[in-house]
Amino acid sequence: MKPYSQLSKDELLSMRSELEVKFNEVKAKGLSLDMSRGKPAAAQLNLSNGMMDVLNSQCDLKSEEGVDCRNYGSLDGIKDAKRLLADMSEVSMDKVIIYGNSSLNVMFDTVSRCMTHGVLGHTPWCRLDKVKFLCPVPGYDRHFGITEYFGIEMVNVPMLPTGPDMDIVEKLVSEDDSIKGIWCVPKYSNPQGISYSDETVRRFAHLKPAAPDFRIFWDNAYSIHHLYDDDPDVILELLEECEKAGNPDLVYKFISTSKVSFPGSGVAAVAASSANLADFKKHMKYQTIGHDKLNQLRHVRFFKDMDGMREHMRKHAAILRPKFEAVLQVLDSELTGLEIGNWIAPKGGYFISFDALDGCAKAIVAKAKEAGLVMTGAGATFPYGKDPADSNIRIAPSFPTPEELAIAADIFVTSVKLVSIDKLLE
Ligand code: PLP
Predict the structure, then answer these.
(1) Is-above-0.80 flag for pTM?
(2) pLDDT single digits (tens) 185-212
(3) Closest CA to 222 of 40, 404, 47
(4) Which of residues 304, 339, 371 is at a domain's end?
(5) Signal peptide span per the entry (predicted)?
(6) 236, 271, 304: which is the final residue of a domain?
(7) What is the ipTM of this complex?
(8) Atom of ligand 1 nearest to the CA of 103
(9) Which of 70, 92, 391, 400 has its CA 20 to 30 A from that of 289?
(10) CA 217 → CA 109, 201, 226, 259, 297, distances in Å?
(11) Ligand 1 pocket test, candidate residues 190, 195, 196, 259, most atoms within 8 A of CB
(12) Residue to substitute in 142, 257, 291 for testing ligand 1 pocket (most ligand atoms within 8 angstroms of CB)
C-alpha cells in the first residue's frame, strides 16, 4: 500500500469519507471495549485456582525448615519461598528477601527508604537539593508515579531496540551526582516488549556513577512471561554481571508472581548484594514481624519448583498468544506500508506499543473512545504524563476476548487512519 504522505489531497479526502462511513457504523453499535488494562483475563486467573486447594485445615502448615507459617516470624521469608523466588530471579537463595503481595509496593518502599534514610549510610535523598532519576521512555507509568510522588526530577532516556540508550545513560550517570537511580524493565519491557541486549546489561554492570548511592531499579516483572516458549528472550543476569564488574551493590532487582498466580495476591521479592539486603532488612524489621507466610507456602506447594512455574506459564501463553496475534494481524494487514505508525511485535510481556505520527496519539485515543474503545491514556507511558512527541500509545490485549480484540483493533486502526489523514491535510 502507498504511504499516506504520497497521496494527493483529493485522494486523502475521499479516503477520509469512506473511513468516516465505516467509523460511524461501528460507533452506532454502542460498543464498550477496553484495551487499556494490563491485567490477566479470568481464564488466566482460573489457571491458579488450584492454589486455593493446596492449603486446608488438614495440611501441615510448616515450611521446610519447620517454621509454623500460621505464626509470626521469618522476617525475610520462608526458605521454600526463597528458593522458588531466587530461581525465578536467577540468583542464589542468600541474595533474596521475600516481601508481601506486590513488587510495586516494594519499589515504592525502597524509594521511600532512600529518601528518609539514604543508601548504605549516605545522605538521605530528602536532604539533598536535587534528586533525579533516569526514565527510559516509553516506560511504566507507575514507576514514574513513584518518583513524581517523592518530588524526584525525572529525565527521559530514549529506548532503543537493545534497551535504554546507554551512551546517554553512561554520560548522564557519570557526570551528574544528583542522578540517584534509573527505572528499568529489562525483559519484555512495559510497553514495548523490548528485552535488553547482552551489551546493554554489561554496560549497566560497568556504569561508573558520580553518585555513590546511585542504584539501578531493575524491575524484572516479565521475567518468565514468554509468548513463544520455543523462542524465549534470554537476558544476562545483572547481579552476577555487577559482581564481575566489581560493582556488586549497583542494582536492586524486583520480581513478583503477580502475573504468574494472582495479581494483588502473589509473592514479591528483592534480589541484591548482601550489603544492600542488610540495608533493606534494617528498615524492614521496624515495618513488619514478617509477611504472609501462608501465601508463600501456598505458592510453593502449588508450583513446587521452577519447572512447575514454567509449565504454568506455558498455559498463560496459550491464552495470551492468540490475543496478541489478533491485534498484530490487524495492525499488519491494515497499516503496513502506510507510514502512519510503527509497532513492535513482542515475544512476551503484556503490551504492544504503537507509535503514531507525531502529534496524533491523544487524538487517536479520543477518536477510539468515540466508538466505544478505551485505550490507555496517551502520554501515560512518559514521566509526568507528557509524551513530548504525542505519539506513543500502549495497547493492552490481555483482558478482552480474541473476538472483542479483533473488533477493538479494527476501531483502533480506523481511528489511526482518520487522525493521520487529518494531520496530513493540515
Ligand atoms: N512492574 C511492571 C513493569 C508492571 O508492568 C507491573 C504491572 O503491570 C508491575 C510492576 C506491578 O507488579 P506487582 O503486581 O508485583 O506490584
Answers:
(1) yes
(2) 999 999 999 999 999 999 999 999 999 9
(3) 40
(4) 304
(5) none
(6) 304
(7) 0.99
(8) 15
(9) 92
(10) 12, 13, 22, 19, 27
(11) 190
(12) 142
